[in-house]
Amino acid sequence: MPSSPSPKPKPRRRQTKKDRSPTPNAVSMPHPRAHATSLESIEVQPRTPLSSRAPRRGHAGYSGDEDDFAEQVELSLLGEQGRRAAASDLTLEEEQAYLAQAEGKKAFSSRDKRAIVLLIILYLIQGFPLGLALGSVPFLLREHLSYSEIAVFSLAGYPYSLKLLWSPIVDSTFFPSIGRRKSWIIPMQIIIGTIMLAMSYYAEELLNNPGQHLYTLSAAFTSLVFFSATQGWALTLLSEENLSFASTCQTIGLNTGYLMSYTVFLALSSEDFAKRWGVPRLTLGTYLFFCALMSFGVTVWLLFIKEEKESTSEDISVKAVYTTMWEICKLRHVQILLAVHLLAKIGWQANDAVTQLKMVEKGLGREDLAVTVLIDFPFQIVGGWLAGKWSRGDKPLRAWIYAFWPRLALTLLFTLMVYWFPKPPISAGFFVLLVTATIAQSFAGTIQFGGISAFHTRISDPVVGGTYMTLLNTFTNLGGTWPRYFVLKGVDLFSVATCNIKQDNQLVSLKAHECVSEHGKTACTELGGECVTEQDGYYIVSAICLGFGVLSVIFFLIPTARKLQAVPVNKWRIYS
What we know:
Elements: H1 66-77, H2 80-86, H3 92-102, H4 110-141, H5 147-154, H6 158-161, H7 167-172, H8 182-208, H9 214-232, H10 246-268, H11 271-277, H12 284-303, H13 318-329, H14 332-343, H15 349-361, H16 366-390, H17 398-402, H18 404-419, H19 428-459, H20 465-494, E1 496-503, E2 506-512, H21 518-525, E3 529-535, H22 537-566
Antiparallel strand pairs: 1-2, 1-3
């Protein structure tokens, strides 16, 4: 029989003169090890070798064979010229794979692609209750409740800023037969869907009489935020080489879910918007029913996803994680930084918590507010890119420091805009000013967020990088959450309202509790009078916050930030 033709050889890459240069000798180095907890979304390896042993299974450098690992280390030590020379005798396909291996690039596996889709959907559902509790529902309640009562509802957002307190339990406790992630995601999804489904049948009654159901509403949304935050700590489905994409999934999913529940729902729930565009009005009950179906649908999907078995022999105990947090908090520089975080956002708290509510109270349409937030969203992305660019180098807090002044100036501008708010309909010029100021305020906030995040990355101990970063980020979020309750309470506290009643051609003024909510207005109307706000506490609270912000920035925040920025990185470390 005639012999079969030999396969055509694959084209090989021609060597250039530069490629023929001697390859630098690579020195084998021991693989550094880092103790990782499941709190860490991305494991950061120490730069100094701590052990001469091969990497443990499950880490990015592990290949199943020590010789392969040594080859990978040698490749990482070669320069670009050396890598090209080492690949000179390979086929074109082999060369691309070889160089990609040297640069640490790996193609997405089908498992990771499915995990990314699942992560985005899980974060999307997590954003639904956050957008309702922190965004749209307070605007729906404004007509019916006083600011003190809205302050009670604002407590629903606190669990998201305090999730670090119970996250180690979530990370360490699970059923091995079910899997680490599914042990928490599935029950959380079922609970979230059940609460939303139950609320969908009573939503209209709760919104029509929120004063009678204030604590029921607050408890329901607090539970939703709590279980959503708990679920978030279990979202670690990606393989180690692609863990960096977890933050991308979170940004896309969480922001989309938040905007749907805040901007989109706020516009579609407006009667004026529905009449203007000829679309049916979206009720809270219908939207909650949709969110519940989404939650149950994802739960069913999760039941058919097989989770890989994990080795738990090297898991750090709950006690060890809490001990690590305590050791971090004992560092003097960390204590000062935490104090900075708790005070840094007080200057514009009245603006963040009350200004938009005041504008709606004075006639700004909910759909106009939704459009303002929607226009602002793309500028947040640009601000995030610039924040990363401006926060490079040895002074990552420089952008964070400079952004204080525009944020405080914009707070004053918004206060004046509320004071001189025009009677509806709002002119195009005023609306353009409102949109421009909102974009500028959000841009400055994004710059500060990027700067402080870059500083956290710089100072965090890589041995416990995830726990360290999570602790600092928790206090960053808490700094914008804890004053909100007191600011809203202060508006009613400093407000002076009277009920003016005409009797026998004489005007009798009675002290009223407030003239903001329907309840306060109705109480005066039943007496045959007119409820009038003599002194709006918003301006007093805004002045207090703004004055405290200016003084704290000048005498504490900026000087302290510059000192912390100058502290050597090794002073922030507890292990390495």
